[in-house]
Amino acid sequence: MLGSLLTLPAGGLPKFIWLSAVFSAFNTIQCLVAPLGMTRKIYSQKPDQVTPLTSHVFAAWTALSAVLRYQCAFNMGNELIYDITFWSYVIASAHFTSEIVAFKTIKMPGAAISTFCVAITSILWMIHDRDVYIH
After folding, report:
1. pLDDT confidence of residue 97
2. Quick one: which of 67, 72, 89 has its CA closest to 11?
3. Which residues, 6 or more positions from 107, have their beta carbon under 8 angstroms from its beta carbon?
C-alpha cells in the first residue's frame, strides 16, 4: 500500500485522503478486535452507551469510508467518487458535532479531536481544490 502512494495524482489532497483511508482501515480493525477500547474513549461522556454492537456498526461505517477515501485518492478526477467522499466527511463531521453539542457523548478536546480535525480539513480542502481535480 505504501508503494501505491507514488502513483497518486499530484497535489497534497490525494495524499491526505489516502492517509485518511489508511487510518480508517486501522480504526475499522480496532473496532472489531477491541470493540470497547478506543470507542469508549471517543464517547467518554457516556461510555456505558458503547457496546460491542455499536462498535461493530461504527466499524462498518468506517470500512465504507476507508474504501471511498481510497478510491477517491486514486480517482480525484471522478466527480461522483469525489462528491460522495466529500459528503462522507460532511456526514462524519455532522455526526461528531451532534455527539458533542446535542447528545453530549464526546468531550472536546478528547480522543475524537483528530477525527474531527481530519473531517473539517478534508471538507475545506476538497471545496478549495475541487476545480483542480474536477473539470
Report:
1. 93
2. 72
3. 44, 45
